[in-house]
Amino acid sequence: MSKNETPRDPNEVLEEYEETLDSVLAEVESPDETTEDDDLSLGLPGLSLGRRDFMKAGVAAGAMGSVAGCSALTGGGGSAGSQSTPSGSGASHTVEPGEHDEYYGFWSGGHSGELRVVGIPSMRELTRIPVFNTDCASGYGYTDGTQEMLEEGGGYSWGDNHHPNLSETDGDYDGEYLYVNDKANGRIARVNLTYFETDAITDVPNMQAIHGCTVLSPDTKYVLGNGEFRVPLPNDGTDVKNPDNYTSLFVAVDPESMETQWQVKVDGNLDIVDTGKEGRWAISSAYNSEEATDIQGMTKDDRDNVKAFDIPAIEQAVENGNYEEVNGIPVVDGTQDSPLNKGDRPIVKYIPTPKSPHCVEVGPNGDYAFIAGKLSPTVTMLDLDALADSSDPEEVVAGRPRVGLGPLHTTFDGNGHAYTSLFIDSQAVKWDIEAAVEAEEGSEDPIIEKQDVHYNPGHIQALEAMTTDPDGEWLVSLNKLSKDRFLPVGPIMPDNDQLIHIGQGEEEMELVADHPAYPEPHDCVFAHKDKIDAKKVYDKDDYEETYITEEDSGVERTGESSVHVKMTTKRSEYGLPDFTVQEGDEVTLTTTNIEGVQDIIHGVAIPEHDINYAVAPQDTREVTFTADDPGVYWIYCTFFCSALHLEMRSRMIVEPAEG
Ligand code: K7E
Ligand code: CUA
């Protein structure tokens, strides 16, 4: 816009936008082009739904886009059996004072960059784990070690984490690590579950956005990530105006070294990924098979291709040297025309599905992958055994129940039921898996019941649903909007994570609690408390910093303008009541909390130097900063550690430079 142009009336702009949507809708719907209609059912064998049954791309884009004045959203909540208060069996999620929860819940924090740990069933927030953000309570991003990790992990100050995954051994959570994606910057991070701390961040080469993220079951051979945005390969300025040459990648990262092992190039955008239980298949949903760069183009065709990655076949291709190396990473060609997809063991199978499917979740016994339709009111069930011999939808689609509008994600109780979130209908729908295999495709018969949620759910997760043996007692619906469910807190309202009692799938679903969540969780994962072994005190063998004893406390000049200050902390004093440095000195301050008592944490806050961090029992942390300005600075403890906490101080004296 030129400087002199007057800004346009927002209503006018919106009107224009809605007109565009209408035309997209008309194009996708094409009610009169009957010939193409026939073509659609031909192309999607067994899909006995008419075009009218599809949630049209334009409508969904409007509904999901949260445009001002969008009415599609306000229609949520459905009509049947609306329950906003607990009723029925009266399942209680109360955890009495002093009692513990039965499960850990690990919540992604979306664009807050952090993870949150929530107790189930109480829904109490137990802690937060900073991952892609910085955190001034713990000092994550302020201490040397964490600052270095963030710097080497790309140097960004934020990230957008969606999909937390627990490491597995034999298809069950082993309590060692949690892996999570960064959709914003194409990264994967690892959290150490002994200390509930992020211990590695990998900035994956060649990828802009990693959206889907999962571990390869059953033994966490890889952490797998889906590149969602198509970009030139390499994205170095070549082909910028040539979207045909952009590409999406699928990546495998080693869970121990966190190094990128290989990537696979595919057609279309990748979305979400989950793996079978035997270590062979990774199934990815995908959209934009048109490879367009705008919404009109992305919603032009009638179908997309779900991708089935044959992991051992890809490993074989890498071993045989069938790849091109880009930025040091072997990139295997998994596009439809690739020679590697021509033989009898293609590395990627392309399976046509209704347009723009959203999530993929593999059921507990590994029989089926459940692909939620998003724009189609159906869930497509892929038979993973049949996949070995075919990618023909006729042979690999085991069922396609019609579940409701805007299906996004599916979870399981381990007793034969699937639960799918319905974004547009604002409901959780429970349905019978085997009945869906038996039923005609597009049938509503497998549906057992629907529960209203408030409002517009994304992910839905039941207890340990991603293991081979789900626990099936509780389910959480992660709703994008809370609207009227909480006291208004300004225009940005919290999300609403709702706790639903499902029994073992034998009882009716019962909505039990609303739980506000700061923007914006996407997914969560639950582990029984016995599977997590969190340490209460640090073990000094587990970190690199040098443990400081009271005798070590002191100041050591390490160069003309650098000093190393070593200092212990204990109730209620620092190892040095004061220390002196020279103006301009680079100060390295190493602090050990010499206490061995659980939960006695000390803080080290240095006013006017932008430093604060926590030191837990037996932990050692280090910071480096420049003492720029002469003066006196009262270092104080930020954790209320004792009756003499206020008196717990040290004095940094910065002497003016001479002359
Ligand atoms: Cu559906 Cu990123 Cu898993 Cu959000 S994704 S909802
Ligand atoms: Cu140590 Cu307060």
UniProtKB/TrEMBL annotation:
InterPro entries linked: CcO_II-like_C (IPR002429), Cupredoxin (IPR008972), N2O_reductase_N (IPR011045), NO_Rdtase (IPR023644), Nos_propeller (IPR041114), NOS_propeller_2 (IPR041142), NosZ/Cyto_c_oxidase_sub2 (IPR051403), TAT_signal (IPR006311)
Entry EC no(s): 1.7.2.4
One of the GO BP terms on file: denitrification pathway
Gene Ontology annotations for the cellular component aspect, listed alphabetically: membrane; periplasmic space
Enzyme class: oxidoreductase
Compartment(s) of residence: Periplasm
Keyword Signal: yes
Pathway: Nitrogen metabolism; nitrate reduction (denitrification); dinitrogen from nitrate: step 4/4
Disordered: annotated span: 1-44, 74-97
Domain of life: Archaea
Similarity comment: family membership: In the C-terminal section; belongs to the cytochrome c oxidase subunit 2 family. Belongs to the NosZ family.
Designated name of the protein: Nitrous-oxide reductase
Species annotation: Haloarcula sebkhae
Gene (name only): nosZ
